[in-house]
Specification:
Blueprint: H1 2-7, E1 11-18, E2 25-30, E3 36-40, E4 51-55, H2 59-70, E5 73-80, E6 85-91, E7 100-106, E8 118-124, H3 128-142, E9 146-152, E10 159-164, E11 170-174, E12 178-181, H4 186-193
Parallel strand pairs: 4-7, 8-11
Antiparallel strand pairs: 1-2, 2-3, 5-6, 6-7, 8-12, 9-10, 10-11
Helix pairs in contact: 2-3
The structure holds glutathione.
Length: 206
């Protein structure tokens, strides 16, 4: 895959090889906007979109937040003392079956600066109003806040609630699961990692 991406003009930022301190073979590539994608060599899975990695300043606080606010479970936890980091994979099913959040704690790092390009991870819910109540309780206990009260998006038949987790990462409960990032050219992203465009919506009023 790396050779394919290189041939299409993609930037390889980490050549394929075993992860430091482990045996899984990985590589890193960059899309034209500068977003980093990790390629992980593993057997075929029903969902090839594996994980979204967020760096967090207090792993136990984040685990509690994602459990309480969004009903996720820790599906795998890996501590790499030699590399000075711990990872908790959180989601709704084993990581071989579904996309998961990869929460990374680097020893001693309690805060991260955030740019303005990352937007949000979206989680589906059948009732944003109930979800907002649960999220609000988790925010009060563990940090973060609701940034958009639950309700419909103008012009669309979708209701959302937007909120920040204790580290300030934004999440949105909506009816479909998607990861939103600001990109210059989604055509290149499709080519780069063979993602398929499943829906494109233009919002002229935003
Ligand atoms: N300090 C790293 C901790 C996480 C980490 O190292 N993850 C592994 C993948 S699970 C990685 O990026 N390894 C790079 C390598 O092995 O070259 C970070 O914040 O990105």
């Amino acid at each position: 895959m790396v050779e394919d991406i290189r041939a299409k003009g993609g930037t390889i930022t980490r050549e394929p090889g075993p992860v430091k301190g482990g045996s899984t073979v990985i590589a890193f590539v960059k899309d034209p906007t500068g977003y980093v994608f990790e390629l992980i060599q593993r057997g075929s899975t029903p969902e090839p979109l594996c994980q979204v990695m967020l760096r967090v300043g207090d792993l136990e606080r984040s685990i509690k937040f994602y459990e309480k606010a969004l009903g996720m479970k820790v599906v795998k936890k890996t501590n790499r003392p030699e590399q000075k980091y711990t990872i908790a994979m959180m989601g709704y099913a084993p990581k071989e079956e579904t996309t998961v959040l990869e929460l990374t704690y680097n020893y001693g790092v309690t805060e991260y600066t955030k740019g303005n390009a990352y937007a949000q991870v979206a989680i589906s819910t059948d009732d944003v109003y109930k979800s907002a109540e649960v999220i609000n309780l988790a925010n009060q206990e563990l940090g973060g806040k609701i940034t958009r009260q639950p309700g419909p998006i103008p012009g669309l038949n979708t209701k959302i609630v937007s909120f920040l987790d204790p580290d300030g990462w934004k999440n949105v409960s909506v009816l479909v699961l998607f990861l939103q990032v600001q990109v210059k050219d989604c055509k290149f992203l499709e080519l780069l990692v063979s993602l398929c465009l499943v829906k494109k919506t233009n919002f002229p009023f935003r």
